[in-house]
Specification:
2 copies of one chain form a homodimer.
Chain A (H helix, E strand, L loop, with lengths): L3 H8 L13 E7 L5 E7 L1 H10 L3 E4 L4 E4 L8 E8 L5 E8 L14 E6 L2 E6 L8 H5 L2
Parallel strand pairs in A: 1-6
Antiparallel strand pairs in A: 1-2, 3-4, 5-6, 7-8
Chain lengths: 141, 141
């Protein structure tokens, strides 16, 4: 059942992001050139505001419970080419120019393994096995 | 700090999806032809299993608290061309062939509005204003 508030959120032009119970939005970052999904992460209100204001991706790390400028340690920043929101404004899609690799494992995308049906379950296979850098050299661990 | 379990999850070939506190994974569906992000939704274990087994997208609706075969009401099914998982296996990316429109508003993608900086905040503008069908005619509400 749609309410008037739902209708405004879906068809209006005011940006009213709908944060979840943890005060976060889901954000999908894709490579602006290839369309590949690079990563899925979260933004709190401050990360969202900084991303809009600076044109570079900021996220909120749930594991570290901290605001996080993408690339602040590795230098692998994301320049935002376009930002969109979805019908109910609880998700963000950013098309980015990725410097270096999006993934902490050294791969361009975090989605470096395919899932395929096998033996009644599923198995993985690598799409990108090796990555572009040695994480130990970049992050020192 | 990485543990041996983290390392297995990131570099191994066994599929060990990491469900969140609500027993869900985040799933991003993109158009296999254009690369456009169509929608962001959630899968529980059963939705994931059915998606792998049938090659069509199944989700779990948090608002309706129910398993949901994409397109079961509208006919706008998603045929899965490729499924991937990310480094820590808590997100799924499916590349799909979308019949009709992914969005319940009648638009091909749920991400039909751009977010742009304006007056110290942000404003929206339509990328796809009209959509492909009349939701009332398809969903009867």
């Amino acid at each position: 059942m749609s309410t008037s508030a739902d209708q405004d959120r879906e068809e209006g032009l005011s940006f009213s992001p709908k944060f979840d119970a943890s005060d976060l939005l889901t954000c999908v970052a894709t490579d602006a050139a290839s369309g590949e999904v690079l990563m899925v992460a979260h933004m709190n209100e401050e990360a969202l505001r900084k991303t809009v204001a600076t044109g570079e991706a900021w996220y909120y790390s749930r594991s570290r419970q901290a605001l996080w400028r993408k690339g602040e340690t590795s230098g692998h920043v994301q320049r935002v080419v376009e930002m969109r929101t979805d019908c109910d404004q609880d998700a963000i899609w950013i098309r980015v120019e990725q410097t270096g690799a999006a993934c902490h494992t050294g791969r361009h995308s975090c989605f470096y393994r395919k899932v395929e049906a096998a033996d009644g379950g599923a198995r993985l296979s690598f799409v990108d096995a090796t990555g572009q850098f040695d994480p130990k050299a970049v992050y020192g661990k």
